[in-house]
């Protein structure tokens, strides 16, 4: 399964859910759609999906409950519990690639957060936010410095993209056309 097609896969799964006999889809469909919503960081749709899954399916399927448990940790921003749940759960091949990508995606988001939000932060906080044990090697990999119990992240620089306003573009186009007419 290619992660680039997740938007289309989610749309297909939503359609399959709507067309399911008696309005109830399979636990595998619900699990995959729930995992995709989490990967897309669409926590609202994930929560609404969880609410519309029949209680009997939730009770019968441990993987559905585990996926939602991961979603709750994301909702509560409990990164320590998130990394524990997503790493220690044995996922079926139906959702395993999505959950692995989710873990990487959340780690990358937290890495960007730490880089841009902190000038210094404790080693324990970095370990908890990024779900890593060896903070020193992670810091070295990203050019951060570690002194004692403190990590000094380096802010990621993003190139500034100059965007002209629509009015300015229209003025330039008008000037260009008038030059061509002369």
From TrEMBL:
Q: Where in the cell is it found?
A: Cytoplasm; Nucleus
Which Pfam families is this protein grouped with?
A: CSN8_PSD8_EIF3K (PF10075)
The Gene Ontology CC terms held by the record are: COP9 signalosome; cytoplasm
Task: List residues traversing the bilayer.
Answer: none
Q: Which InterPro entries does the record cross-reference, listed alphabetically?
A: COP9_CSN8, CSN8_PSD8_EIF3K, PCI_dom
One biological-process term from Gene Ontology? Answer: COP9 signalosome assembly
* Predominant location category: cytoplasm
What are the residue boundaries of the PCI domain, all occurrences included? 1-169
Q: Which UniProt keywords apply?
A: Cytoplasm, Nucleus, Signalosome
Family, per entry: Belongs to the CSN8 family.
Name of the protein? COP9 signalosome complex subunit 8
């Amino acid at each position: 399964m290619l992660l680039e097609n997740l938007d289309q896969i989610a749309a297909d799964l939503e359609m399959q859910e709507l067309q399911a006999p008696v309005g109830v889809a399979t636990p595998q469909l619900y699990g995959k759609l729930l995992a995709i919503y989490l990967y897309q960081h669409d926590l609202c749709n994930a929560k609404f999906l969880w609410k519309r899954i029949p209680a009997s399916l939730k009770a019968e399927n441990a993987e559905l409950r585990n996926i939602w448990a991961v979603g709750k940790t994301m909702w509560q921003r409990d990164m320590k519990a998130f990394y524990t749940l997503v790493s220690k759960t044995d996922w079926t091949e139906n959702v395993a690639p999505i959950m692995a990508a989710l873990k990487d995606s959340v780690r990358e988001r937290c890495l960007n957060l730490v880089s841009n939000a902190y000038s210094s932060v404790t080693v324990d906080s970095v370990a908890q936010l990024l779900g890593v044990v060896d903070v020193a090697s992670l810091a070295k990999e990203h050019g951060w410095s570690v002194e004692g119990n403190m990590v000094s992240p380096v802010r990621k620089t993003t190139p500034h993209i100059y965007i002209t306003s629509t009015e300015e573009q229209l003025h330039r186009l008008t000037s260009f056309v008038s030059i061509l007419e002369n």
